[in-house]
Request: fold
Amino acid sequence: MPVRRRNVTIAARPGDYAPNKAALAPQEKVDRLTKTVTSRDEIRDIRAAVETKSIMLATGESALHVDIKVDIRSLPFKKENGRHAERLIFITALFDQNNKFLSGVDGVMETNLKDGTLTMLDSSGATANVTLQTPPGTYRLRQVVQEATSGRIAAFNTPVEIH
Reply:
């Protein structure tokens, strides 16, 4: 129902409303993640490390193998049905020396751990790995890990040489 006052009309339909902060939170996490991938800034909200190795694929093409290790003691697991739940988002991107994006991959690790498994992983951490096919050269690897519970991020750059 329109309201008229001093030559101003405001009309609203049933269901029109401004989203609350809770509704925006997931989109804000995605926006921050996207911005972080293209940035060069280092972020250490959670503890993670990366190891890289130049490899040759069975096809004879060069590639980069990446191991990403996350210290799970830095994660705020949610306790659900007697298990420890967490969701990790991994984005691995390769940039050339001119900061041009060449290739990348993303992945998700869903955990639903029993107490014993969580205790075992406390010492070893959680590991994800990826292989990027790329020609020989010098590159910058950008690794971003985001945990979904609070949106905290680890982001770092690693110079790599592919043979």
Summary: The chain is about 15% helix and 50% strand. The first strand starts at residue 3 and ends at 5.
